[in-house]
Amino acid sequence: MEAQRTGRTRRGGAAVAETHEARAAREAVVEAALAALDLDAKTRLLAGQDMWSLPALPEIGLTSLVMSDGPIGVRGRHWTADDPSVALPSPTALAAAWDPGLAHRAGALLAQEARRKGVHVLLAPTVNLHRSPLGGRHFEAYSEDPYLTGRIGAGYVAGVQSGGVGTTVKHFVANDAETERFTVNNLISQRALRELYLAPFEAIVQQARPWGVMTAYNTVNGTTMTEHRRLVNDVLRGEWGFDGFNVSDWTAARSTVGAVEGGLDVAMPGPKTVYGKALARAVREGEVTEAHVDSAVRNVLRLAARVGVLAGAEPVVARAELPPPVDGTALAREIARRSFVLVRNEGAALPLKPRTTVALSGAAARDARVLGGGSATVFPARTVSPLDGLTAVLPEGALTYTVGADPNTELGVADQGFTLRAICRDTADRVLATVPVPDGQIKWMGSDLPEGVTHDTLHSVELTGTFTPRATGPHTFGITGIGAFTLTVDGTAYYDDVQRPVEDDPFISFFGAPEPRAVVELAADRPVEVSLRHTVAQPVGIPLRVVGFTLAHQVPRRDPDELIAEAVAAARAADTAVVVVATTERVESEGYDRTDLRLPGRQDDLVHAVAAANPNTVVIVNSGSPVELPWREEVAAVLLGWFPGQEAGAALADVLTGTHEPGGRLPTTWGPLAAAPVSRVLPENGELPYTEGVFIGYRAWERAGRTPSYPFGHGLGYTDWTYDDIKADSSSVTVRVTNSGARHGREVVQLYLAPTAHDPERPSRWLAGFAGVEAGPGESVEVRIELPRRSFEIWDETANRWAVVKGSYEIQAGRSIADRRLATTINV
Ligand code: BGC
User: Fold this and answer.
1) Domain boundaries along the sequence of the chain
2) DSSP notation for 89-143
3) Looking at ligand 1, which atom is closest to the CA of residue 374?
4) Whole-prediction pTM value?
5) Which of these, 125, 275, 402, 519, is most buried using a 10 Å CB contact count?
6) Catalytic entry in 145, 249, 448, 654
7) How far is the CA of 199 from the centre of ligand 1 (A)?
8) Which residues line ligand 1 (CB under 6 A)?
9) 380 C-alpha vs ligand 1 centroid, how far in Å?
10) How confident is the model at residue 183 (pLDDT cuts 50, 70, 90)?
C-alpha cells in the first residue's frame, strides 16, 4: 500500500520481517516457560508490580518488563524533570507531515530512548480519532481520518519495533473524549465502529503487527473495554490475527473474571489489581478456567521473548541488528518544521525578506508550549523557544520582544529562579534523605523514592530552597496536591491546612490546577527562602503508593491593556510583526475536555491590535488541536505550529527565514465551534451516543454543506504545484505534478474517492491514498499510489462483513479535500 515515487521507495508501516523458523523457535521457548509456571506465578505475572513494570520470574529466566509513556518521548520510571527525554512534536504534528516514513524514523528514535532508559514497551501510539474538536486529548492523537491515522500509526509502530521495543496501540477503542472517561458508555453503530474507530487499529495490526494494545477506560455499547470479549477476542485477535499482549489503561481493569474472560492480559498499575492473588483465587474457586490465565500469560511471555527479556528466546531485533543511532535533536527539529502548516500567506509574507526587522510578541514566544498535558508529558533536557530560535538567526538589532498577552492566568510549576531540594523525614522528624530537585514538582510513584526512603518510613516531604525573582512586585505561590501542607515564604507561613480533592478522577490531583495560597511582595534579584512541607497521605483511587504535589508560582501580573499597547508600539516600529498565540495546560490536556475553542486570555485582542498596526503580521498558532482564529483574514500569514516539541524555536526559525519550507497539511479540519457539525462530548446519564454515525470531521462538514476556516489536507509550502495528469484503475492511481514555483519543495498528493451516485449513507468523498513527492523548480514527478480495496467497502451491518459497493467512482487528486485539481472515473 506504500506509495512509490519514481526511483525511490520509503520504509513506511511494514512490520519487522521475521522468518517462520525464528517465530516458531520463540513460540517453543514461550510454551516451555508457560509449562514451568504454577498458577500463583502466572497470575502474579499478569498484574503490575508497581506503576510501570511486571514482576520478574527468575524460575523461567524472565526479567521485569518495563513500560513507559509515550507518545512523543519516553518518560521512563520517573515523572519528574530529573530523567529527561527527547520531546518530539505532538502526534497531531507528526500526522500533519503526512509521511509514514517520518513516523517510522520517530519510532526508531523512541526505541533508542526506551533502550537508554531500560524500557521495553512504549505506551503509544494513541490512534483514537478527532471526533469532536472539544476532545481534550486531541493533541495526542493523529487525525479525524481513519486512513491517515492508520498509515501514520503503522509507520510509528513499525519504527519503534524496528528498535526492538514494543508498542501498545491505544486506547482500544473509542476513547475519543475525556468527559467521564472512566465510565462513559459510547453508543456507536457497528458501521461507524468498523469504518471509523476500529479502522486505524485494524490497519496497524495488519501492516505493522504491534506487540501490544491498550484497552480503554470507556465502555462501548454497554461493555467496558477491559472486558469487551467481542471486540478483543473476536475482532482484534480472531478476525485480525493480533498476537500481542493486551494491557489495561491505568486502573481501567474492573473485575477479575470479566477482564480475563474478556481478553485482558495485564492489569496495570500494581500492586493492587484485579489480577494476581484475586485471579489465582478465582481459578481455584472454579469461577474461571486456568486456560484463560494461560492464554494471557502466553501473550505476555511472547512479548517478553520479543523484546529479549525471556531467557533462551531470540529477540525479534538482535543487538547487532539495531538501527543506527538517531540524532534526537535534529529529528525533533526536522519533524517540527515538516509539521508546520502554513494556512495563509498573503503577498508571500513568508518567508521573511532578508534584513527585515521583526517585532515578536506573545507569552508563548518566550515560554513555548512544546507538549500537551497529562500522561503524554515528558521532560526534555532543553527547549528552544521562538525567541531563542529567532535570536539565533536574525542579525543583532533586528529583533524586539514584548509579551503582548499572557494567557497563563494560573500558576505554573516553580522553576525559573528556584533552587530547590526535597527533605524526606520520618514520624520523629528525623531526616531520611535530602535530594536536589530540578523544579517544584514531586511525583514519586511506587518504589520510585529517594535512596534510603520507603513508603513505610516516609512521613513528610519538604520542598525547600531559595527563590530569586526576576521582577519586583506581588508574586503568587500555590500548591497542587491532596493532603496537609505548610507554605512558608521569606520566613512567613502563609498556608497551613489540608487540601481536599475536588474531582473524582484521581489523576486530577496530579494534572489539576494549583490553588493560589500566598501573594508576597518581592524585590527583583533579592533571594528569599521558600518552603512547602507536605505530610504524606495516600490519594484515594490510586492502586499504588504515590507521593505527588507541586509548589507553583506566578510572576507579578501586568496590566493587559498596557501589554497590548507595548506590543502594538513595537509592531509599528518593525517591518514584520510575529505574534505567537497558544493554548495553556488548562485547555489541552488528558483528564478533561475543552469547553470552547477560543484562545485563552487577551490573545485575540493582541492579534487584532497588532494586525491593525502592521500589515505584515504573521501569526504562529502554538496549540495541539484546533482553535478559533477570528482575526485570520486581518493578518498576512498564519502558521499552525502544533505543540512543536523541544526544538520548537529552532524549527520555527528555519521556516520563517526560509531555509526550509513548512511541510505540513491539516490532518483535521479547522473551523469555529459553532459551525462544527459534531462537537458533543458531554454524556447524558452516562451515555454518549455517536448519533452522527460515519460522519465526523470533513465527512460531516461536507454533508452539512459548511465551509470550515481551513479544510482537511490544506497547507501551503514556499513553492507552487500544477497537477498535470491522472490515470487510474481499480487498484492504483498515477498522478503527475509539476513544481511550478521558484524553489525546491515537497507536495502531498492526496487522493479522494467520491461515489458518482449520491448515497446519503456514505460521505461524499473520503481520503483513499496519498504520497509525498519532492521536485525542484520546473521539475515534474510522477507518483503511483495504490488504492486499498477497503476504500471501496462499507461495513454491512446485516451480513456482519465488509462489502464492496459496486458502481462508478471519481478519483480526485488534489492539494486538500477542497482543492481538487484532477479527476478520473473508474468502475468497480
Ligand atoms: C492514560 C494512558 C497512559 C497511562 C499511563 C492513563 O491515564 O490514559 O494513555 O498510558 O495513563 O500513564
Assistant:
1) 38-316, 328-409+559-673, 412-554, 719-827
2) PPHHHHHHTT-HHHHHHHHHHHHHHHHHTT--EE---B-----STT-TTGGGS--
3) 7
4) 0.94
5) 125
6) 249
7) 22
8) 69-70, 123, 170, 249-250, 375, 507
9) 19
10) very high
